Amino acid sequence: MSAVLPYSIAAAALVALGLFGLVVQAAVLRKILAFNLLGGGVFLLFGVVARRGAGAGATADPVPQAIVITGLVVAFAATALAVVLALRMHQITGAATIAEAAEDGFPDK
Amino acid sequence: MSGTTPGGWLLVLALALPVGGMLLAFALGGRTAERIALGVLGLGTVLAGMIAAEVYAAGAPLAYRLGGWAPPLGLRLQADGLAAAMLLTAALVLLAVALFGRAAQATPPGVQEARAPFTFWTFLLALAASLAAAFLGGDLFNLFVALEMLTFAALSLACLDGRPSQFRSELRYLFFALIGSVLYLLGTALLYGAHGTLDIALLAERAGADLPTLLAAALMTAGLLAKMALFPLHLWLPPAHAGAPPAASALLSGLVVKAAFVLLLRLWIWVLPPVPAGAGAPLLAGLGAAAILVGSLIALRQERLKLLVAYSTVAQIGYLFLMLPLVLAGDPEAAARAWLGGILQAASHAFAKAAMFLSAGLVAGALGHDRVAELGGAGRAMPMAVIAFGLAGLSLMGIPPSGGFTAKWLLLTAALGTGQWWWAAVILGGGLLTGGYVYRVLAGSLTAPPAAAPRPEPPAQGPERVALALALVSVALGLVPLASFGLVQIGRPILGGAP
Amino acid sequence: MGGLVDWLLAALVLGAAAWTLAAPTGFAAVVGFVGFGLLVTLAWVRLGAVDVALTEAAIGAGATGVILLMAVVRLRGGAEEVSAATPGRAVMVAAGLLAGGVGLALALAVLALPDPAPGLAAAAMARRGELGLGNPVAAVLMGYRGLDTLLESVVLVFAVLAVWSMAPDRRWGGIPGPRFPRQEAGPLALLARLLLPIGLVIGIHVAWVGAEAPGGKFQGGTILAAMWVLAWVAGLVQPPAIASQAVRLALVAGPLAFLLAGFAGMALGEGFLAWPPGLAKPMILLVEAAMTLSVAAALALLVAGPPERAA
Amino acid sequence: MTGAQALLVAAIAAPVLLLAACLWDGARRRMPGLLWLAPLPGLAAALLAADTTPLVLDAARLRFTLALDAPSALLLGAAALLWSAAGAYASRYMGRGPGAERFALWWLITLSGSLGVFVAGDLASFYLAFAAVSLAAFGLIVQDGTPRARRAGEVTLLLAVMGEICLLLAFALLAEAVQGPSLAIADAVAALPGSPARGLAVGLLVAGFGLKAGLVPLHVWLPLAHPAAPMPASAVLSGAIVKAGIIGLLRFLPADGALSDWGGILAGIGLLTAFWGVGCGIVQANPKTVLAYSTVSQMGVTVAALGMGMAMAAPGTGMAVAFYATHHVLAKGALFLAVGLAAGSGGWRRWLVLLPALILALGFGGLPGTGGALAKAAVKPQLGEGLVGLLAGLSAAGSTLLMLHFMRRLIALEAGGTADRPARGLLLPWLGLAAAALLLPWALYGAAGLGDPWEALGKDPVAALWPVLLGAALAAGLARQDRWLGAVPEGDLLLLTGKARRLGAACGAVAVRAEALLRAWPIAGLALMALLLALFGVMLAAAA
Amino acid sequence: MIGALQGLGLLAAAAGAGFFLAGTVGLIRFPDTTSRLHALTKADNLGLGLVVLGLLPFAGSLGAALKLLLVWGLVLLAGGTVAQMIAARVRGTEPGA
């Protein structure tokens, strides 16, 4: 089982890096990247779990593998959505961060 | 437990119907989407009613084993009292919002298909599908997919108006929700690694107070709290909910946050062992108390009506968390009360808040603004909308007879019964502050309009009636005999109690 | 030796991740991320999860990389805004400590996982024959946890519509994404012409073998989507108008087929999402084909973005 | 369901049904003219259904119980009479139009609650009725829409909600004290003395009901609200609505000596209130405000009697206190109606108003022969002896002084022209109610089991008379001291709240700033991670 | 036992790795875009070619061998195209280079 140790640590460190980036990075694009790093860490952890559960002729437990495949697709969809939102925000307001929250009420006519 | 019960097919229909409806609405487009949505949501209400009746009659949860595979390998759908009650609440609110949307979100004449109406109707179905998946799912990863569906649907509904200022607040919402999702997913990875299953019923048997389980619970809870916008994680909620069109706001505030709460209950009441859960619950309830007080206080000082209502949601979410330490206190009688109180709070808040957002939207639409200080004349121009707002407000305050009152009464007596009087103080203080902001709106709208103001255009009767009907349901929940709420107790694990 | 490779790979993954965070420009960061994705793909191979490795390469690194690269080009400027919004040292330190704390707790929890690991490998391997599938991951995706896959394919439809709905009102029904000039000659046109037929074959092949060997609809669909994006960028094809009925049908074909198959299972077999005995393999392949089409369409349209031009 | 029980249902159902009828335009337009009908079933119930077997609807579930004991019946009858007379008065006074229709709606809600508190037999229905009467009164107070009315309404509403909160908590404690799921008031009261949270529960009950009854220092809303409302509304506010507090105290505090310590405290608060009301009242210029302070004072006496009864475990206290309050319902209601008439009539007809008013007014001081004298006699067992007796006498003297001051302010109101005749629709309810206030106590004294009224009055005429004479003498002495008028603003103690409000505003501003900080992206992110780790740590520590 | 073919294969793969190394050094050390491109494409195409060549003797079947060659071919195609496009871009933006 020692083979999974490097990846376990990498997964934990990726989660930490991703969280750190999501919190402190200001640019939207960097936040999206940090989210993907964070997701990568989570998926890698599933990989560790899958590898630890290898057996019965499977090189890794197929259930976590399937979960990661599903998760990767969902994460991609989320990334695409975030990118579109960021582009539209940039296009309309020229902003590249989400620093200030726009307090939004009913639009004044 | 893992087998299919009689009536289990209802669960499949409750999920497959909105999923199929959404796909068809998306494919066929335009006005057809609206027609499909109305039909599917109507049928969905019937189904939800049948499920609730079936659960109540059987006195036991319904379950359906998908594809014939038994957990842990396979997945199952299940409806206990909690799921049945929330499903019915969601179905009714969705149907009401759909009826409201017939006027507000109609495809304009002369075009085949327009962006906002098409998005609204399709995502209305999407939301129904996501909520059904979130309430009926019995597997933590399946519930993750449901949460993601919910996030996408909610985000798109929040963006419906397409105003420039919205993209920034929606982006904040998306990022925070995504962090929440990822933390939740991380928790499921640990749970699978530790117990080899993600089925809730099996985890309830296998999970102990070991390190991976506890960290998983903390991660998943934090993720769900981010999605529920529990104070102090509420940064995204006010702008997102206030910036959406009224029909969307009603759904976001009334239903979407509740789905994450159901997951939280599954985690805390089913999966977590009582000892660590009992230790963590006061922390969550403390945040809930802070949410009630701070949220109400901020709502009291808002200048915009829709933001006021949104902050009211921040506060009302807090009440849900008060049930945790009460349910976990180990007193079976108080636990049953607190459980019912919490779920009743979720349901009555869903109706009341939907009514509030709809009526606030009508008022804002007719006046052309939503400044609280300048609501004069609203009461005269659209009495039904203002009455709906007032009735909903009474329910939120906890004035009898209303669902909110019964909910708070149950929580109150459970708090006193378990010797945790401080939660009682919070419940009552929150009611007072709630009264303050509801009063501000009502008093403002009942004053005479400024002389120079143009006479506001009275809204159509139909939408006003929908708002009023929702408010009345929220009030009427307080008149239903308590015994018939025995439904929500079905399937709840009875805890031995923390030492 | 093997252990050293794993340590090295893990370190490289972390290094790429750190570079992605710290890179001086957005472009460099995205390039770092694509490199990160490829290294993670290797890690997946080392972890014995070839199916995931393929998906990671196709979607995690490939498709995500493409949309991020397209975004970085359009998100120019804003340096002052970014530096103004970057939090101060105190917040940085606090964030570092807290994130480090989470990572540490996670590492401890992973080390505390029970040995031997509980899991479902044996069960999943044992029963895949009932589905006529050789690849256990496919058995999980299409069989045991079919509902996940069904809902996930629905999520893709959600995402496409969500992306479309960000468009300005007047663009509704129009053509997504920027217009690329048609390149009659030049390297890109050549690449597109040469690669397209090969890519299509490979994509369909990857999707097809998924039943028995690593591969499947998501990986294959991504390759097909990539081919379409290549043709689009080379100006050979235009994205379809989002009002087009064909596009809508392509997007919902997969989930709808899955849903119908689920009901067929209710009628013929053990219940919803059950594959009728004997018919399992052909039905699964049919659904997988529809899903491949839908995945390819959804990924391509997600890359293209919201409608920007009139049809 | 027996006929008597049906009357109990009808007492509440009548206003509710009229309210429901307002959904139709035609009925709503006619409603101001029908208000006098709404309380009549309540009156019938008071006459015919006292001490009937409690009606338990839906025994297993809601525990929706209706009951009517003798003291409640007494008060219910008087309140119903006042509501009916004031309703008739209102139909003329308010005129027609949307304003009057709105007034009728609030009137009916308040009425249903006001009568409901007398017949509700379980905690939930009582709370519901109490909430209705407390909160809907707001609509009556702000009817005129003036800034003064609005402020009065807001203060009332705020305090009413706070009162509701006290009661809610108290009821929760009571429900907790009862063994089993019963919510019947009788069970709750029986369980109260043995409850571990007894002190807290009683304190909350006293605060919640005392607020409604106008006990110092929770009386501040009363002198603001009662004058601000239209005349008929003032009449029911001061006459009937404050009695919701009295009936609450009567029904929830066991009078059998089980809470004798609290009896003393209540008596002290009551006497303080009695003098406070007089002291603040005699410097008021507006006759309605004077009346409102008189109400404060009279409720003080009522509560003092109740408190002494509790302390001494005197038998019949409930009946005696209810009788005292009954007189106040009728007389105070009538006097408010008089204020509305005095301004609108001139010449000899003015005396149709002033003369009965003078008799009623002096009744509060115990002028022999009046209903007020009988009321005083009724609570004599509780307030007759020793120091308390002296204080009670002094407060009666104060009442005389206050009411003479009221008469002066009433006369000082600008009279109408000699030809102005009061509208018959106003005059008849007033005269009827005044007559009832004078005569009904004579009829009820015996019926209430208090003995023979003649005997009671004849017993010690000097003791009955000296407070009146002392009050009159003081009034004569103070007659020229108008410079004190307005020395105490309406709602006296409210002056002190200015600082509290500024403090509240400052706290609010701090909260707003802090919340804005928490909404900053990195801070929220830090909070999320900190929360995660804290949760993990807490659970780990508990599991270890 | 390693046959002669396999031995040659190992040598080729090692040489390929050497080219990769050189190419990477060039990528980092060369001064401008075009010369970096030169280092990268030459070294990588040749390096990968040698590696593929070296792996051919180890391929279990003809199909696997063909797949390896296909990989090389695709990389040549993609690498060449990208290099061309970068060069064209550089020529457009850096006059004189």
From TrEMBL, chain A:
Membrane protein topology class: Multi-pass membrane protein
Keyword list, A-Z: Cell membrane, Membrane, Transmembrane, Transmembrane helix
InterPro entries for this protein: CPA3_antiporter_subunitC (IPR050601), NUOK/Mnh_C1-like (IPR039428)
Location, primary (coarse class): membrane
Subcellular localization, as worded in the UniProt entry: Cell membrane
One Pfam family in the UniProt entry: Oxidored_q2
Presence of keyword Transmembrane: yes
Bilayer-spanning residue ranges: 6-28, 35-54, 66-87
Source domain of life: Bacteria
Coiled coil (residue ranges): none
Gene Ontology CC, one term: plasma membrane
Family: Belongs to the CPA3 antiporters (TC 2.A.63) subunit C family.
Protein name: Na+/H+ antiporter subunit C
Species assigned in the record: Roseicella aquatilis
UniProtKB/TrEMBL annotation, chain B:
Pfam family, one: Proton_antipo_M
InterPro entries assigned: CPA3_Na-H_Antiporter_D, NADH_UbQ_OxRdtase, ND/Mrp_TM
Keyword Acetylation among record annotations: no
Keyword Transmembrane helix (UniProt): yes
MF terms (GO), sorted A to Z: NADH dehydrogenase (ubiquinone) activity
Compartment annotation: Cell membrane; Membrane
GO CC field: plasma membrane
Keywords, comma-separated and alphabetical: Cell membrane, Membrane, Transmembrane, Transmembrane helix
Top-level lineage group: Bacteria
Record's bilayer topology term: Multi-pass membrane protein
Ranges that cross the membrane: 6-29, 36-62, 82-104, 116-137, 143-161, 173-194, 214-237, 249-269, 281-300, 307-330, 350-369, 381-400, 420-439, 466-490
Residue ranges annotated for the NADH:quinone oxidoreductase/Mrp antiporter transmembrane domain, each copy included: 138-433
Gene Ontology annotations of biological process type: ATP synthesis coupled electron transport
Similarity section: Belongs to the CPA3 antiporters (TC 2.A.63) subunit D family.
PANTHER family: NA(+)_H(+) ANTIPORTER SUBUNIT D1, NADH DEHYDROGENASE
Name of this protein: NADH-quinone oxidoreductase subunit J
Automatic annotation (TrEMBL), chain D:
InterPro entries: CPA3_Na-H_Antiporter_A (IPR050616), ND/Mrp_TM (IPR001750)
Membrane topology: Multi-pass membrane protein
Residues covered by the NADH:quinone oxidoreductase/Mrp antiporter transmembrane domain: 120-343
Residues spanning the membrane: 6-26, 33-50, 70-91, 103-120, 126-143, 155-175, 200-222, 234-253, 265-283, 290-314, 320-344, 351-375, 387-406, 427-450, 462-479, 523-543
Protein's cellular compartments: Endomembrane system; Membrane
Keyword Transmembrane part of the UniProt annotation: yes
A single GO cellular-component term on record: endomembrane system
Keywords recorded for this protein, A-Z: Membrane, Transmembrane, Transmembrane helix, Ubiquinone
Pfam families for this protein: Proton_antipo_M
Protein's recorded name: NADH/ubiquinone/plastoquinone (Complex I)
Source organism of this protein record: Roseicella aquatilis
From TrEMBL, chain E:
A GO molecular function held by the record: sodium:proton antiporter activity
Top-level taxonomic group: Bacteria
Parts of the chain that traverse the membrane: 46-79
Keywords: Membrane, Transmembrane, Transmembrane helix
Coiled coil: none
Signal peptide: none
Name the record gives this protein: Na+/H+ antiporter subunit G
Source organism of the structure: Roseicella aquatilis
